[in-house]
Design brief:
It is a multi-pass membrane protein. The chain is mainly alpha-helical. The chain is built from nine helices and two strands, in the order αααββαααααα. It has two domains: 36 residues; 196 residues, no CATH class. A hairpin with a 2-residue loop joins strand 1 and strand 2.
Length: 269
């Protein structure tokens, strides 16, 4: 009968509805809900653990950048005295800690003279560039290209100092000191560099004595700092290797500072 109706023109064909399966729909709805819930929980757990992992590694290796700029005038004066006259420091070289959230945290620079900061290194680096520009102007070699080379030279020297400290830490068993701590301690070299370049500008040949003094002070400062602060975070301790690395860091300041204080416009000496 249906075939006859379908074969006649002008007569609409009745729609065909497949038989419904109540059990299939129920299983499909329950299965899709279970899959969605499982994937949602897994995704939340995965991304939550990933974000915690990233945050923990960022805090471990980079710390909080704002921490390194919590300084005042008194801290800057005392820190410069510590860098230029480290052998006159009669206090301890260990950083001050305080309990925060169930774990120990370091006091900011404004409350601890032994804490690293980035304010002094950045200001010292900028002053170093200004003084090298004046020195180049006195010798008649000032040009944008020469200043660009001095900037690159300073950044390379800073990078070499950071690598020197990081390699010494890794050789002791993989110290996990934050990267910005190492960058800050390495950047204090430019405070002495400013004094050395200023000596070249004003005292001519007597600047070699200032460079020698700067190298000695920076060597003592880094040795004291590395011994009490950075090496405390190394996983292992080897007395003989420890002493050799400290001596290597101290003696490495002589060629590094002599190279960076050269403002003749040449890449080398």
């Amino acid at each position: 009968m249906h075939e006859n109706l379908a074969s006649k023109p002008g007569v609409p064909r009745p729609p065909w509805n497949p038989p419904s399966n109540a059990f299939g729909n129920a299983f499909y709805g329950a299965g899709s809900g279970l899959i969605k819930g499982g994937l949602g929980a897994y995704g939340e757990k995965f991304f939550g653990s990933s974000s915690e992992y990233v945050q923990s590694n960022i805090s471990k290796y980079f710390s909080d950048p704002q921490y390194y700029f919590q300084v005042n005038d008194q801290y800057v004066r005392n820190k410069l005295k510590l860098v230029f006259f480290p052998f006159l420091h009669r206090g301890h070289w260990t950083r001050i800690t305080e309990p925060v959230g169930g774990r120990l945290s370091y006091q900011p620079p404004i409350n601890d003279i032994n804490a690293p900061d980035l304010y002094i290194p950045f200001m010292a680096f900028a002053t170093y560039l200004v003084l090298t520009g004046i020195s180049l102007g006195q010798s008649g070699k000032f040009s944008p290209e020469a200043m660009n080379w001095q900037f690159v030279k300073g950044m390379v020297g800073w990078f070499l100092q950071v690598m020197l400290l990081k390699v010494s830490l890794l050789s002791l068993g993989g110290g996990e000191a934050p990267l910005l701590d190492t960058v800050a301690y390495s950047g204090y070299t430019f405070t002495g560099m400013c004094l050395a370049v200023l000596g070249r500008i004003t005292l001519n040949y007597a600047c070699h004595l200032i460079i020698l003094w700067t190298c000695m002070c920076m060597g003592i400062f880094l040795v004291k700092t590395m011994k009490r602060t950075l090496y405390a975070e190394a996983r292992s301790y080897h007395s003989s290797r420890h002493h050799y690395l400290l001596l290597g860091i101290a003696f490495a300041q002589f060629p590094l500072i002599s190279w960076l204080s050269n403002t003749t416009g040449n890449w080398f000496f």
